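Service request form, structural biology core

Requester: graduate student, group of Dr. S.
Request type: structure prediction, single chain
Budget code: on file
Notes: please return the result as structure tokens.

Sequence provided:
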Amino acid sequence: MELKGKRIAILIEDMYNEFEFWYPYYRMKESGAGRQPDYLAYSG
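Core staff response, request fulfilled:
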């Protein structure tokens, strides 16, 4: 799938496995999505 120029959000929650973020991130980056991740932290 070609994602060139698309912006992607990966939502994660407490108690996640680190690979649940990084694997999809690098796969989408290889497909041309986004520039760099934007981080948003929520503590509630």
